[in-house]
Amino acid sequence: MNWDDTTDGAAAERLVDTAADREDQAVEAALRPKDLGEFIGQEKVREQLDLVLRAARARGATADHVLLSGAPGLGKTTLSMIIAAEMGAPIRITSGPAIQHAGDLAAILSSLQEGEVLFLDEIHRMSRPAEEMLYMAMEDFRVDVIVGKGPGATAIPLELPPFTLVGATTRAGLLPPPLRDRFGFTAHMEFYEPRELQRVVHRSAALLDVEIDPSGAAEIAGRSRGTPRIANRLLRRVRDYAQVKADGLITEDIAAAALAVYEVDERGLDRLDRGVLEALLKLFGGGPVGLSTLAVAVGEERETVEEVAEPFLVREGLLARTPRGRVATPAAWNHLGLTPPQRPATGNGQQDLFGA
Q1: Under a CB-based contact definition with an 8 Å cutoff, are residues 149 and 126 in contact?
Q2: φ, ψ at 123 (rounded to 5°)
Q3: Are 179 and 134 in contact (CB under 8 A)?
Q4: Cβ atoms 303, 296 nearer than 8 A
Q5: What region holds the AAA+ ATPase domain (predicted)?
Q6: Binding residues for ATP
Q7: Which of 91, 263, 292, 330 could cysteine-pair with 117, CB 3.0–4.6 Å?
Q8: Binding site residues for Mg(2+), as ranges?
Q9: 279 lies in which domain range?
Q10: pLDDT for 230-286, tens place per residue?
Q11: pTM (predicted TM-score)
Q12: Beta carbons of 93 and 121 less than 8 angstroms apart
């Protein structure tokens, strides 16, 4: 695929993209752990959530509302299903963008069963009228349905059975404080360590009937950008390579060779990520350079560079955002095997990112 011909929509086709495509959704359904004991990683969140659920079961009550925040692909949907399973309750799944009117939310809430879990993904993208209705539903298990328009409009109170709302968001800062405050338990999902991702890869390989040795799992885990969804996607592509080019066993060499074909390097950077770094280093001497200029240099939209490539590059310490523009770090020069230029000291006597 030629990155010069891509659009924002095409960004989802990247092998290391965190969004789930249809294949990911089908595979994740088969690989998804069924209880907290099977769930790998997020130890603090699992321990805290286990206490919340155990206490609710002991009281014979519905669990407190739960807010899960964190990057895509870390297991928020999986945890919502585990919450329902642990509570022995059905689950209803919807998303913020699907609720554009208060009536949409009222229809969902009024059909809930007692104790049911309502999973609301991307809750920060819900419309404001629906959000205000949700305040009362979460706190008082009641909503006011407006019938009619204008001066003759009437509010009819509708009692709701007790339910548990599990909200998921990738941008917790966009949630208004009144909504955040109504969640009894809030958890932030962290990126996974390589050793945790190795366990994820081994578990997924066993469920997919893929033969893999520890070194092969470690190679895939190290390139998975701290995200289980990406680890599982890379595992499937390496499996294909091993079946066609080898005897089906995934070793370190087979995993490395397979991911080289798919242009995912040892740090998890793909062609777009390296394109941004190469433009920054080779065309602009490491920066600073404006985001729009950098986007033009790599043939991408500004939003694609800012929202798709930059977050991982910044997290990896390869790129820095400064008031003057984007700047490459010494680690970026080292990763691409290039020598950074000598930079003079700044006016206040301190050195810049590269030193003297």
Answers
A1: no
A2: -65, -25
A3: yes
A4: no
A5: 62-193
A6: 31-32, 73, 76-78, 139-141, 182, 192, 229
A7: 91
A8: 77
A9: 271-335
A10: 999 999 999 999 988 888 888 989 999 999 888 888 888 888 888 888 888 888 888
A11: 0.80
A12: yes
